[in-house]
């Protein structure tokens, strides 16, 4: 398994790269990387668009940065996920989006323990009112391989992460009310007042 922070979004509503915004003294991407490293003993990588690569080198070693593959024609978070899968096809991927800077090690650890306890699944996800939270999840290499093939052949009907989850055999963990704050997405400058 490897851990991946998804930072390749356009951040159009925020107006600046969300992964490079700061919380206390660290960038959001670095904050999540630290929480992942504290939760799970696996290497941590950052998934970015090619035009972001140079900016992330200030925060991460080059060896930890994975640029989206030009060969992968899907869009959104799925492009980052499949680009990492293309580079590490045998690895299960623990992913957290960079716009969830309040995500903590304890919650990531709950996900990881569910993964260890239920190895016969394709994905391990949290759910909020039975709806999946696809950007704090674990995706198994086998399930990703099937999605990768569908994407390559143009057979993927939708490119949303929720649709991808519907194609996978997933283990779901209902989010407890006291965990909800960790799953908060910050997408616009007005959201920053809640940090």
TrEMBL record:
Q: Gene3D superfamilies per the record? A: Spore Coat Polysaccharide Biosynthesis Protein SpsA, Chain A (3.90.550.10)
Q: Which UniProt keywords apply?
A: Cytoplasm, GTP-binding, Magnesium, Metal-binding, Molybdenum cofactor biosynthesis, Nucleotide-binding, Transferase
**Ranges for the MobA-like NTP transferase domain?**
3-150
Which Pfam families would you find in this protein's record?
A: NTP_transf_3
Taxonomically, which superkingdom? Bacteria
InterPro entries registered for this protein in UniProt: MobA-like_NTP_Trfase, Molybde_CF_guanTrfase, Nucleotide-diphossugar_trans
Protein name from the UniProt record? MobA-like NTP transferase domain-containing protein
């Amino acid at each position: 398994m490897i851990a991946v922070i998804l930072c390749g979004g356009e951040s159009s509503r925020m107006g600046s790269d969300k992964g490079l915004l700061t919380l206390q003294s660290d960038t959001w991407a670095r904050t999540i990387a630290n929480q992942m490293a504290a939760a799970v003993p696996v290497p941590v990588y950052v998934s970015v668009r090619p035009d972001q690569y140079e900016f992330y080198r200030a925060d991460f070693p080059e060896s930890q940065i994975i640029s989206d593959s030009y060969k992968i024609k899907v869009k959104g978070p799925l492009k980052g996920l499949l680009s990492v899968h293309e580079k590490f096809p045998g690895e299960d991927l623990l992913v957290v989006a960079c716009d969830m800077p309040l995500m903590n090690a304890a919650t990531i650890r709950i996900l990881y323990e569910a993964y260890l306890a239920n190895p016969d699944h394709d994905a391990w996800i949290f759910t909020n009112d039975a709806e999946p939270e696809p950007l704090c999840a674990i995706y198994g290499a086998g399930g990703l391989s099937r999605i990768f093939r569908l994407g390559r052949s143009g057979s993927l009907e939708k490119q949303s992460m929720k649709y991808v989850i519907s194609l996978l055999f997933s283990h779901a963990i209902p989010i407890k009310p006291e965990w909800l704050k960790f799953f908060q997405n910050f997408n616009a400058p007005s959201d920053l007042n809640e940090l």
